[in-house]
Amino acid sequence: MTAQVEATSELPDAAAQLLIPEHDVANPEFSIVIPALDEELTVATFVDWCREGLEEAGVSGEILIVDSSTDDTAALALKHGARVLRVPKRGLGRGYIDALPYIRGEFVLMGDADCTYDFRRLRPFVERLRAGDEFVMGSRFKGYIEPGSMPALHRYLGTPVTTWILNRVFSSHFSDIHCGMRAITRAALDRMNLQSESWEYASEMVLKSVRMRLRTSEVPVRFLKDPPGRVSHHRRLGWFSPWQAAWINLRAMFTYGADFFVYKPGLVLLGLGLLLTLPLTFGPVAVGPVSFSLFWSLAGLTLSVLGLQSFFLGCLAQSICDPTGFMRQRWLRVFRYNRSVLVSVLLVVSGIVLASFLVVQYVQHGLRLPSIGTTSYQAVTGCLLIMMGFLVFANTLLLHALELRLSAPNRATPPKA
Fold first, then answer.
1. Is 90 exceeded by the pLDDT of residue 182?
2. Which pTM does this prediction carry?
3. For the chain, where do the domains classified as CATH 3.90.550.10 start and end?
4. What top-level class would CATH report for the domain 3-256?
């Protein structure tokens, strides 16, 4: 079978080479996009499975193999009717990024070329996407897992634990975030702007689907054992590879979900700190047998400052990590510049007034404090108000500076040599 080769100089990536099969599909509705690395043992069967699945689902689709192999993977895929995009070896996630300019379908289905996911059964993905869903996750736990196909470490520890963590951090309801078989609309994939070039692309895609508020569903998939003679990529890389992949995915979750660790905890700390400090402004307070004195007031000041800054860090994290821009606009409305500056000034002035009583007493007694009295409690509250005023002002500036950075087009040009 002969193939057409699109000129490298005409491609979006000069390092890429697109190979087109003799009987190419025109105007496909679906694009099955699969990164492959040295899969000559399975890729021919896999492409046949894809063609069978597309035919059974009654859709017109292309198969695009993003190949970085050193074996005959590209030739075999091309022979069986797949488009092949030859790119340098740059990571699993990078394979999907490289493929974006070459995807022709309205819907994109992703997976692996190792025949572990049964691509002969594509109808559930087709039905959900045609029904209006924007992101469809496969779930091995809701479908079928062939005995011996998934190591116990992955099945009972790695996947359930990391799925649970992601669901807690992002308030989602996935059952299998590491399922490699998933589908998304081309429009949503473009807006998603994937950045990850390694294993963490899977988590980035899932969590961005939540941030983008995509209409999402799960469908059961069949997960099969590796064909005889094939060794999985994790086993090829050694025993440490699964642990490294888990750590990389967790890093992506925590980075994109940074607000989880600071936003709500910050509000809790702020509330607790104010509850300790403000009631003690005019002296100690006794609640039953417990007496709250100046040390409690100082503890409240510490918690309040820590909580308020954590809250603002959460606002900034939400503004940065939300690809829709909704959260950024929300916090800009809450912290309007003029209003926030006015609040900052009022807080600082009020704090200075309260703290000034202690300063006056300090001066009147020859730069010594005779005892801890009401003015000491007022000074603690005053210091708290001054710090809060500064934090409101500084973080308002950061929010508005972030808006300028993210909303303005980049018109900068590199300096001439």
1. yes
2. 0.77
3. 3-256
4. alpha beta
